[in-house]
User: Fold these one by one.
Assistant:
Number 1:
Amino acid sequence: MHHPRSHTPDPAPADPAPADPAPADNGRQQGPVSAHARIPTERGERYGKQLCGHAAWKASRARWTPPDGVIEFPGSTGVCRITAEPDCLLLAVDAATPADLVRLQQIVGGNIERFGAREDLTVTWTDGPDHGATNGG
């Protein structure tokens, strides 16, 4: 007895779903993310300059022009903007992914806490948009 299916190739599978280049389970949010910190200190310019100088050897770009600075991390990982005010140091980090943001917060925050150990500086990050570090202060 002849079975028609035996001579017919299996049908091609339906078009598979396109591969998701950034699976949702890699992080809560995909795309650019940001955080900022306000560190009370009267030595904001000193720490801003020191942070930019320290980053210059590894960053794609690091520039300090008082009272503002910028550090561009390699590979489009992210950017840190720095503003020294008379009573505080403002930091704003924008990163490509949540994982990059955490890493940059650790790098930048750890350096500031180390530089300001005598003042017992602590960097507390707040997630969200820029706090005004680029508003021409």
Note: Residues 6-29, 131-137 have pLDDT under 50 and may be disordered.
Number 2:
Amino acid sequence: MEIRHLQYVTEIVRHGSFTKAAEALHITQPTISKMVRNLEDELGAEVFARDGKQAKLTAAGEAIVRYAEPILQLFGQLKTEIDDLTYLHSGSIRIGLPPMAGSHFFPKVIKNFQERYPGIALKLVEDGAARIEESIADGTLDVGVVLWPLDSDALDSFPLAEERLKVIMHPGHRLAGRTSVELAELAEESFILFVSGFALHDRIISECRSVGFEPRIVHESSQWDFIGEMVAEGLGIAMLPDTICRTLGSEKVSAVPLINPVIPWELVMAWRREGYRSMAAREWIRFTREMFAAALEA
């Protein structure tokens, strides 16, 4: 038995004849008659009693109509919901955003996306880029912002922003005002880092080790603004991208470009290479790619 069988039977009952039902369904009368005969053959029982031109239900037909109404109603609701999802009238997207990326790059993007697709719910998860990458890979998140490089075998991506880290320090620090500072010059400094789970935490430690020292970590935080305030109080130094350094203000901290090595801060939008992606998630990827490409070209 198919949905079409239920639709045809209910239309015949509604119109009282095969001919009128066929007209309403925009099919031929022989087609609807054949479908009913096929249904009767499948059930081994007559659905309509042939009594001249009048279409009268048998007991089996009455049972079919009794169940057909709620089934067709639910089917209609299902079709409407699928159409809404397909044409982006509804749906949801789970998006991972690191604090620095979320506050500086995405408020306007989110506003523009919600204005275009008000029926789509954006479920934002703030976390470190390393944890976001793990959550995308295991399917907990649909998409997210992470730091390059990433696991390109499992994830696909496009670039959002390309910057370098600067060293921030109290304006009275011995290195404040320099045009640049080498990483090795920071061997005796007190470091304020992001907590474990943030990609910059492991990357900064790794880079320090590569030039021959273990960083002395005195404080850790998940909030870039709190890190900036601790540096402003002279509690240690930190490394942040240029966009964030400009936000902190030169009266609070001195931001000096880091060299030897340069540590890049490259944000990408990432999603799983394999597996199902909803229409809403695909549209988010297309929409944000277009917005950031325009920003990079400007």
Note: The chain has three domains: 3-86, 91-160+266-297, 162-265.
